[in-house]
Design goal:
Number of strands: 38
Distance between the termini: 66 Å
Number of domains: 3
Radius of gyration: 29 Å
Shape: globular
Number of helices: 9
Oligomer: single chain
Strand content: 35-45%
CATH architecture of the largest domain: Sandwich
Strand order of the largest sheet: 5-4-9-2-1-11-14-13
Length: about 650
């Protein structure tokens, strides 16, 4: 994966360059410790008191960053925030100074300096030129303590860009400020995300952006991941970027040309790559079969990240990746391009943000918006697969993530669907919105054969057939959990609906190539139905819950609701016990909204109750002001699925 571009706010903090000596805390930290805070929810672990960064750019583009940061620990969970961390690149920068202090509730001060600094790899990569200096006061911290640190770093960045989190994670912030000091004749412009535009206070060539009194971010079910206010800033000499200087981009086509030139030469196939491609596709009859064979092979190449050189953006040569049989996301995408090229199939690298389809913003051309690389494959044949987009110049493009080994060729991971991504295709490339698969492409079909006894006990046979992203969820559990963990997960899911169930059979069947996953389960449950006065037998025909059910219970909501693209259908056949007949059935339900539809039905036939339910969810982000409609929709579904059937003894 491209080196992580989004760091904790604490990794980018700014400081006053005057350090206190000995065990005396600096004045700024003592002042911060005297701040009165509002009363927070008990779940809030810490509050940021000071988060201030000053970035000074020299005439030759070198950057000095001064950082100050302070937090108050509010509970035991907050002790983990008593750490000073600053990141540097071994080839382009260094941490020049670092010091930290802990002010205990008693007022006693403990100072941390050179002897407490550790130097660590920033990521779990085989080799990465990105490292970090750390001071930890976790073992010394306690509720009520104030921890603060100062750092000074120097670097020569690859891009004349920087980013800033006004708020890190969900914690409240008293004051957060970014100051950029430029040489004479330079200029800067920025964009604010997840907040109204923050205009800078400009004093000559100094720009300062500040927010104060930010409340804690409340995590809500199915909310967007990217919620904290943040900024990105670009800066350059007034006459434009000079030859040899760090880069800055004003348009997406410009960024496309740059990455095409950077990555293109690395995708040249050699004879060994061409021979392997011919071997893999020897029995392929269609273009899509060739792509699928190559994609499956590259998925099985081991993911290992080695982040070095050219801003960590240029992939290794395809021949090198093939020979070593490992690489990161851009290496795997690049190898796939080389193998396809040897078969005269054209493809392009795609820069994307993995983890949040709403993250990348069209108005801000910047490579720092991306953290991942996938591939777009130009198809000549009219292949009927889900992850296709139509480009006005390049035609039909199949989008594929060779790093996600749970999602087959023809599909796209859900966290990448619908997002903006850069297709690097020279002059023809640019920012495109990735395809979103239809609900029917992510369907789960379930049948259940249930035998209900007169005492309320049941035995059941459940068969599930999942495709698309519904299958991916099942596949990940099956592949990445041990057998005991997997069985425990299935048993927990079954017993959530049928208390005290005994699962006697779990039989999964994974077909990655076809994008399918089947699961057969058999179980029994004593007293599932409730026998009342030895005359009435009450039970719910919706025995097993939907694993991806959305629960929205709060009356109010602050953030949008993110709906995934899904289809679910179930038919339950309940063999009724001898001597009982249906006395009362729930009313059938039919719901239709722009973001989804739902319906149920009941039928009694030949001694069986036949219950069906069907749900369709259409992918989208529903604004918070429409929350009442979304909540009402899913509340009615929960009510319908909890509705009982009443049997009476004849």
């Amino acid at each position: 994966m491209i080196r992580r571009l989004v760091l904790l706010c604490a990794l980018m903090l700014a400081a006053v360059p005057v350090m206190a000596a000995g065990d005396d805390a600096p004045a700024w930290l003592r002042q911060a410790a005297q701040l009165s805070l509002p009363t927070y929810e008990k779940s809030v672990a810490m509050a940021v008191l000071v988060d201030d960064s000053t970035v000074t750019v020299s005439d030759d583009g070198r950057v000095t960053r001064s950082s100050t940061f302070a937090v108050r620990i509010l509970n035991r969970e907050g002790r983990g925030y008593a750490q000073a961390v600053d990141v540097y690149e071994t080839d382009t920068g260094k941490v020049r100074e670092m010091h930290a202090w802990l002010i205990r509730p008693s007022g006693q001060v403990k100072s941390y300096g050179k002897n407490e600094i550790s130097d660590e790899a920033e990521l779990n990569d085989v080799y990465d030129e990105s490292r970090m200096k750390r001071i930890s006061a976790v073992d010394d911290a306690e509720p009520g303590a104030v921890f603060g640190f100062q750092t000074i770093t120097e670097s020569r960045p690859y891009f004349n860009q920087l980013f800033w989190y006004f708020q890190s994670g969900i914690s409240p912030v008293v004051a957060s400020r970014l100051t950029l000091v430029l040489p004479n004749g330079w200029r800067a412009n920025g964009i604010t995300f997840n907040h109204a535009t923050v205009e800078p206070a400009v004093n000559g060539t100094s720009y300062a952006w500040e927010l104060r009194d930010l409340p804690a971010v409340e995590r809500e079910p199915s909310s967007p991941h990217d919620l904290a206010p943040r900024m990105e800033v670009k800066y350059s000499p007034a006459e434009g970027t000079r030859p040899g200087a760090a880069k800055v981009f004003d348009s997406w086509p410009e960024l496309s040309r740059w990455y095409t030139e950077l990555s293109g030469p690395q995708s040249a196939p050699d004879e060994r790559i061409a021979a392997k491609a011919r071997e893999l596709t020897a029995n392929a009859r269609t273009e899509m079969e060739k792509v699928r064979a190559i994609g499956t092979y590259v998925q099985n190449i081991q993911y290992i990240s080695i982040q070095i050189g050219v801003g960590r953006w240029r992939p290794h040569a395809a021949a090198q990746v093939f020979a070593k049989s490992y690489g990161d996301c851009k290496d795997k995408a690049n190898l796939m391009r080389a193998m396809l090229k040897s078969l005269d199939i054209e493809s392009f690298p795609v820069l994307i943000f993995s983890g949040d389809p709403n993250r990348v913003r069209e108005a801000w051309p910047s490579p720092l918006q991306f953290n991942h690389c996938i591939v777009a494959i130009k198809l000549k044949e009219d292949s009927q697969v889900a992850a296709i987009l139509q480009h006005p110049k390049m035609g039909r493009l199949l989008i594929f993530d060779a790093t996600d080994d749970d999602t087959p060729v023809g599909d796209l991971p859900e966290h990448e669907q619908g997002s903006f991504a850069l297709v690097a295709a020279g002059e023809d490339g640019g920012l495109l919105r990735m395809p979103t698969t239809a609900p029917e492409a992510n369907e789960l079909r379930r049948t259940a054969e249930v035998q209900l006894a007169a005492d309320g006990s049941i035995t059941a046979v459940v068969r599930e057939k999942a495709i698309g992203q519904s299958a991916v969820g099942y596949r990940r559990e099956f592949r990445h959990l041990s057998r005991p963990e997997y069985l425990k997960t299935i048993e927990g899911w079954v017993t959530y609906g049928a208390t005290s169930s005994k699962v006697t059979k779990v039989e999964p069947a994974d077909d990655l190539r076809a994008g399918r996953f089947d699961l057969d389960i058999e179980f029994s449950a004593a007293a599932y139905g409730q026998l009342m006065q030895n005359r009435l037998l009450v039970f719910k025909p919706a025995i097993i819950s939907r694993s991806e059910a959305l629960t929205l219970t709060k009356a109010k909501r602050r953030y949008p609701v993110v709906i995934s693209s899904r289809a679910f259908s179930e038919t339950v056949r309940v063999k009724l016990p001898a001597g009982f007949e249906v006395d009362e059935l729930p009313d059938a339900v039919k719901l239709d909204m722009p973001f989804g539809s739902y319906k149920t039905s009941y039928e009694v036939k030949n001694g069986e109750l036949i219950f069906t339910r069907d749900l369709v969810q259409r992918a989208g982000t529903i604004p918070a002001d429409q929350y009442d409609a979304v909540r009402s929709f899913f509340e009615k579904i929960r009510t319908a699925e909890g509705a009982p059937v009443v049997l009476a003894r004849k």
